[in-house]
Amino acid sequence: MAPKVAIVFYSMYGHILKLVEEEARGIREAGGHVDIFQIEETLSADVLSKMHAPAKSDYPVLSDPKTLEQYDGFLFGIPTRYGNWPAQFKAFWDKTTGAFWGKYAGAFVSTATPGGGQESTVISAMSTFVHHGMIFVPLGYKTVFGTLADLTEVRGGSPWGAANNRQEAVGGGAPVTEPSQTEQKVQKQQTSTEPQHKEEHDKSGPCGLPVKCILS
């Protein structure tokens, strides 16, 4: 049976949304089933207007965490806030219970600069994953080392997960908000990673983890 993955994201200006759609495409191409949910907004319409935020996307709003219990794993799209979850995501986590134990979790992020929290945001997210007993699935270097080690262009992404530099303004050029072809390549590779991990997990038998029961 194809693994069921939920992509859960928050996006104020649409930068993470571009990554979401690439991630979803990659999951489908890898043979997985994917549904997309956006986190509920906590800011008022007046505040959003003053921040010049565009209208939200049409993806369903995830107001009840129980909706996610039917999925095998999650990919969280996180626009960094000081190297951490945005407040809207934290409000969602405050409503959860222990129902996500044993499920897979990965993350992809969007930052304003290459050093704006692409790794620290995922590291911060891991604390949440650990408290819920979820299994963190990083992108790793194995399948994307050549891409991530290429220094000929400024791009997002790391072994922690795919990413986008939403304000790429090198040499005084205009800001770039669309994921580059290189970033999209990394995103696509990440989306094939989680289904592969679940397949290995299912092969490992009653121990439940792809470590071949080395402690049994």
TrEMBL record:
InterPro entries: Flavodoxin/NO_synth, Flavoprotein-like_sf, Flavoprotein_WrbA-like, FMN_Rdtase-like_dom. Residues 195-204 have a biased composition (Basic and acidic residues). It is found in: Cytoplasm. One of its GO terms (molecular function) is NAD(P)H dehydrogenase (quinone) activity. Residues 159-216 are annotated as: Disordered. One of its GO terms (cellular component) is membrane. SUPFAM superfamilies: Flavoproteins (SSF52218). This is Flavodoxin-like domain-containing protein. It comes from Aureobasidium uvarum.
